């Protein structure tokens, strides 16, 4: 077994002996970090635990977090009787479609607002941002009437269009901030070498701000994936999304905690997997521009 990555206990003891205040501050910092991490991760652990506990164990008091026989009955019921896989697929189609269209339209729009001298560009940017200030409840009735008239009520396409209209401003403003950080000399050098504006955008700007695009797309995906209110009004039946099915586990007189935990775990899992797949881009994108050169 390699000891290359193991902590040097002797150096730590020497440091603590020679610098007791610094050692105490370090211990407090790491201790506080561990407490915060446990505080934030415990609800997720509890949700996963409830999803694999028998119903009689779930109702025990005090609750059991350890030492129980795990079962998969809640997951089996979720996918066989509740057909949860279909609703999970609906959520993915709506979220992925809305984010994909928003990125295709939003990234060039962000570049235009950042680099081009558009007449009234500041007003256009503020107007785009102002669409995020509208309370969703204030537009529910007009949206429902409009989509009913055009035949898109209770459809995934109608919900995708609404999510696109909401995620597009988010994509534009986040990506615009990343493009603003890039020196224009990079594009000017490319155009001197023979590239036109579109080629400079495609070959120079997009690769450099790809971490920002990934971060903006992921944030927008989470919003669309977790949205409940819009799906409640604009979908129904087989077009429902996962958050609506999770809510159906809570009845008037009782709550099916096992089903609720299983549905919540399955719904969180795709977002976790996507974040792990994009973690390098997300870390780079969320920290880009934090340090001025």
Automatic annotation (TrEMBL):
Topological category with respect to the lipid bilayer: Multi-pass membrane protein
What Pfam family is a match, any one? BPD_transp_1
Report the locations given in the UniProt record.
Answer: Cell membrane
Q: Which InterPro entries match?
A: BP-dep_ABC_trans_perm (IPR050901), MetI-like (IPR000515), MetI-like_sf (IPR035906)
Q: Where are the transmembrane segments?
A: 30-48, 87-112, 124-147, 159-179, 200-225, 257-278
The ABC transmembrane type-1 domain, residue ranges: 88-278
| Location, primary (coarse class) | membrane
Q: Which GO terms describe its cellular component?
A: plasma membrane
- Tagged with keyword Metal-binding: no
The similarity annotation says: Belongs to the binding-protein-dependent transport system permease family.
What protein am I looking at? Carbohydrate ABC transporter permease
Instruction: Specify the species.
Output: Halobellus rarus
């Amino acid at each position: 077994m390699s000891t290359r990555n193991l902590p040097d206990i002797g150096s730590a003891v020497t440091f603590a002996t020679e610098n007791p205040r610094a050692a105490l501050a370090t211990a407090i910092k790491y201790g506080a970090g561990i407490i915060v991490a446990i505080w934030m991760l415990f609800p997720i652990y509890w949700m996963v635990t409830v999803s694999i506990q028998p119903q009689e164990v779930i109702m025990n008091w005090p609750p059991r977090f350890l030492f129980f026989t795990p079962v998969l009955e809640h997951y089996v019921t979720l996918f066989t009787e509740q057909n949860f896989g279909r609703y999970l697929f609906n959520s993915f189609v709506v979220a992925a479609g809305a984010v994909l269209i928003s990125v295709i339209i939003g990234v060039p729009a962000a570049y235009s607002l950042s680099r081009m001298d558009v007449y009234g560009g500041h007003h256009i940017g503020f107007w785009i941002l102002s669409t995020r200030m509208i309370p969703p409840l204030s537009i529910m009735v007009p949206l429902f009437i409009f989509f009913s008239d055009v035949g898109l009520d209770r459809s995934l396409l109608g919900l995708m269009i609404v999510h696109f209209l909401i995620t597009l401003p988010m994509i534009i403003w986040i990506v615009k901030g990343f493009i603003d950080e890039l020196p224009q000399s990079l594009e000017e050098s490319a155009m001197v070498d023979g590239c036109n504006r579109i080629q400079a955008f495609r070959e120079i700007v997009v690769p450099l701000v790809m971490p920002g695009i990934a971060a903006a797309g992921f944030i927008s995906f989470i919003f669309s994936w977790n949205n409940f209110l819009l799906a409640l009004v604009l979908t129904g039946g087989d077009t429902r999304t996962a958050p609506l099915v999770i809510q159906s586990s809570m009845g008037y007189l009782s709550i099916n905690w096992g089903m609720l935990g299983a549905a919540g775990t399955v719904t969180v899992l795709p977002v976790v997997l996507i974040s792990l797949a994009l973690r390098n881009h997300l870390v780079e994108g969320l920290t880009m521009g934090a340090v001025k050169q």
